[in-house]
Design goal:
183 residues; alpha+beta; six-stranded antiparallel sheet; three-stranded antiparallel sheet; 9 strands; 23% helix
Amino acid sequence: MDIGSTIRAIRKRKNITIAQICEATGLSQGFMSQVETNKTSPSISTLENIAGALKVPLAYLLLKKDERMQVVRRDERRVTTTGPDRLKVEHLSSTNNVRMMIVEFPPGAMIGEAPHAHEGQEVHVVLKGRIYAEQGEDGAEFSEGDSFSWNACTPHFVKNIGGDPASVLISIYTENENGQDLV
């Protein structure tokens, strides 16, 4: 864990001197210097005082780098294709358990050749076009701005029923931490 570097980066970004942190926490400058260079590990109580002086939540100081905010710029998105209709999938962002993507459906295209099931829960928002979604015995038509969700363990499918391309924002939550693409 690289807590010291995190503390130093926050302190510098906020234009706070080591002397100001020491004044607010009662810690010595030598100790703070050792903390920031990761030569010593402060107690949770000391970290709580430092977090207070920096005006950040204690939990933020304890996060690993890959647990912090991840940024994916539009031009950096991973783009794949899936299914027999070669649907375009733009992978927006993800955590260990949640993945978000935009799926583009040409007219008449659907995800998969037949209803499919997998672990997890899905939330869909129609960004553009008209689609039909079916899960088990339930089915409905959706257009721009409509949304729906389901437990993905029941066979389901989504199909573009309009004459123009359709785009759907899909968020998938799974319990296990795998990078498997479920669309």
